[in-house]
């Protein structure tokens, strides 16, 4: 969201967790919606980061004609009820996005320029010995800030 805003994008966030939506507002989201309230045929680019298997109907419904759908979240199984008819009739495209170490220099540059504000995104930094707690936090709702980091210096 922060990167998109830095290049002038009008960013909306769709989610089910109130704390996450409130964080999005604080970070400058133009609009926040619950899935059933999100406007149809609206967004030129849809970034799907949840990986939720029930996301299929939503991403095609909210996408504008000729929109790009960017799949960032990794689903744990097949995504249900994707309408391939919508891909044809609306001219949608789907891309899988896999981040990686090769993006670290650019990420650090954006952090140094203040484009990305990590403190606004990180809920907790835990020692590696607390990996079980980290996974529990990742699964919990109500965090607001999405990232849980493991401090590898504690190995």
UniProtKB/TrEMBL annotation:
GO terms for molecular function: oxidoreductase activity. The keyword Oxidoreductase applies. Signal peptide: none annotated. InterPro entries: ADH-like_C, NAD(P)-bd_dom_sf, Zn_alcohol_dh. The lineage of its organism: unclassified sequences, metagenomes, ecological metagenomes. It comes from freshwater metagenome. This is Unannotated protein. Residues 1-112 form the Alcohol dehydrogenase-like C-terminal domain. Keywords: Oxidoreductase.
